[in-house]
UniProtKB/TrEMBL annotation:
NCBIfam families recorded: HAD-SF-IA-v1, HAD-SF-IA-v3
Keyword terms of this UniProt record: Hydrolase
PANTHER family in alphabetical order: PHOSPHOGLYCOLATE PHOSPHATASE
GO molecular function: hydrolase activity
Protein's name according to its UniProt entry: HAD family hydrolase
Origin superkingdom: Archaea
Species per Swiss-Prot/TrEMBL record: Halorubellus litoreus
InterPro entries: HAD-like_hydrolase_sf, HAD-like_sf, HAD-SF_hydro_IA, HAD_sf
Enzyme class label: hydrolase
Protein family (similarity comment): Belongs to the HAD-like hydrolase superfamily.
SUPFAM superfamilies, per the entry: HAD-like (SSF56784)
One Pfam family named in its UniProt record: Hydrolase
Amino acid sequence: MKPFDAVLFDLDGTLCERTQDTDALYRGAFEDAGVVPFGEPDELWASLRGPPDHDDQVGYVGAGFARLAARHGRSEVDPLALAAALTDLVDDRQVALTDGADAALTAARANGSVGLVTNGPERRQRPKLDALGITDRFDVHVYAFDLPRRKPHADPFERALDALDVLPERALYVGDSLSYDVAGAHNAGLAAAWLRSDVGDLNGYDPEYVLEALGDLRGVLEGDP
């Protein structure tokens, strides 16, 4: 008997990655805000704490710019103005499938039902799906930002499983975040396949499967050890 009746996927960092030129994005923000550039894009990304805050994206990026400005002696700069300029330049259509994503989706479809559970809002995530050409490869789409609760709460997973009429113990969730994807799947009673995103330890999490590459999902669904 196959191990699962449904496979649910995370989107960002799991099935897709951004392709927009981050250096051009960074420099464009300074140009549009009328600010003499300082720092480098990698410094800004490293200054951001935790996952993106879809409730206050400008505030989230602005906090990163504020930390960066302090390190470069540019306290006169308005970090929120820079953040607003950068956010306006982000194009959610500039994405590409991650390595193995197409094969993973194909394997999941051959196995049974397929769903998407993402913490992002539909207004930002749907353009990515459409640009990637994978919108119709899912039987259900759950945009948790638009719900009262997001991952790692169980609610987004439960909504997907209710729509698919699949029991939690018969479903697998695939994602790249231990604290959101693995934790959320386990809170909802699903098995988790963690797509390894770094070489660090598991920090106490215990995913049923660790995928070194997304293409390894086929072996999991076929019951390979």
